[in-house]
Amino acid sequence: MRLKVWFLAARPWSFVMTVVSTSLAYVLAVSDGLNPLTGLPLYLLTLLGLIIFHAATNMANDYFDVKHGVDRVGAPTTRYRPHPLITGEIDRRSFAAVIASLYVMVFLIAGYLAMLRGLLIIVLALAGFFFSLFYTSDPISFKHKAFGELAVFLVWGPLMVGGAYYVMMGTLSPKPMLASIPIGLLVALVLLANNIRDIEYDGSVGITTLATLLGRERGVEAYRWMMAAAYASALILVAARILSPFSLLTFITLPQAISLARLFKTHVPEAADPLTAQLTLKFGVMLIIGEILGGILPLW
Question: What's the pTM value of the predicted model, to 2 decimals?
């Protein structure tokens, strides 16, 4: 039971976003000449490191939100998922110790990869650590100063996809960073959905999210425009020959996106972020399948 509590504290259901971004980097690397078999161990080790990083980020987010009084008994987050810090199933000292241990594991993996690819891996890991720790920690606290969506876009978009591509290929390239834009936008959209739903509570505890800054009506409009931007960017990237034409398979998810946009216009549901996350996952899977097909049947 104790292990299950710790497992749930890491919010493992959110790891699919990291799997999508890292897998996109792997597929792009293979299409650029990486041997899929010899590159597989690097992909798996990178994915492991990034999932541990994601777990540490989730737990650090909870730790500092509890410390700042944002997450507490009765907060919206306690209605949607387990929160062992609030329920008292895990004490703060143990929670902090595990977060620190996870970060140590991340840098051990980064150190090993740096021996293979160079010190730039450490620089990338430090950049990720900066966003991870200061997402909710003082003195920056991106989430509480209306920069949460931007931070999430940068991390799950250009930083994660571009960084993972570098690990596997040994070179920096603008291609994976640009190719990551639709995914980065949609992962940021999950956060925006969450913040729109919780707009009243966040305002009551003094948090300035993008949603509280814009207000509910304009926040919903930003949600709709950001969603449209994800699909438009995929189309532009195909036209620019950065993504394969098969990546237009992502438009299979467009009816779901339109349905969500209409729903938000009339009523922001309790499951705002899980519904948006489902769209993001389906879009990401279609994008990866499209790039795999593009590698097998190149049209240009």
Answer: 0.94
